[in-house]
């Protein structure tokens, strides 16, 4: 995330944002939002100016993961002032609605909200804007891939076959949309028993690395199943804010993104 991406003509790109990086997964529940929030925090701790756009409009997780939810101000009724927490500039449809309220919208409304969140939010000067994608390869992926100036994408998967099948579809969609994939992240691969130290591979192990090597892509991180990660996510204080091994792992991931 060093240099400046040149916006292509007619494409959506917030003016002060140097790099737009989408984080996708294919399947839901594999940790895409968890990785997005922690990577954002780790990049902020590394001194980068970071934003996070929660593009999972039907299932926004970032308000909970950052422990913040209030309606962002819009002094002129047009531009929206994003919220900020843990050093990260944030926008989510979840800020506009109570947590138990569903967004039941058709595609065009969804696309309108996405465009507003990308272009009408005053993101300011950012080194990187991460976009937490919804699962699947639908409207949001297509719209962002075709109309925005994505610098690249990261794909998160567990090593389990049913997750990998969908991750491969996400990778295929990015290839079709000509969005460069920066690398893959294997999440929830290993579980270290806190009592006996035994290592178990609950969702398997190495499936993401195998797919990455087949495609000639790097594995950017191999993250274990970790109770603190889950607790911290639910508490609104991402584990990357701390000093433990997971915070170190996310700091390493952030460094790999910066180099
Ligand atoms: P997605 O965005 O892919 O739907 P989430 O990030 O919401 O997935 O994660 C799904 C659930 O798994 C959440 O409860 C989250 O706290 C938990 N989780 C994600 N990654 C880990 C991990 N490495 N260790 C333990 N729990 C995790």
UniProtKB/TrEMBL annotation:
Record keywords: ATP-binding, Hydrolase, Iron, Iron-sulfur, Metal-binding, Nucleotide-binding
Coiled-coil ranges from the UniProt annotation: none
This protein's record includes keyword Metal-binding: yes
Q: Name one GO molecular function term.
A: ATP-dependent FeS chaperone activity
- Residue positions binding ATP: 26-33
Query: Could you tell me the superkingdom of the organism this chain comes from?
Result: Bacteria
One Gene Ontology term from the biological process aspect of the record: iron-sulfur cluster assembly
Q: Which family does the entry's similarity section mention?
A: In the C-terminal section; belongs to the Mrp/NBP35 ATP-binding proteins family.
UniProt subunit comment = Homodimer.
UniProt function note:
Binds and transfers iron-sulfur (Fe-S) clusters to target apoproteins. Can hydrolyze ATP.
According to UniProt, the name of this protein is Iron-sulfur cluster carrier protein
Gene source species: Salipiger marinus
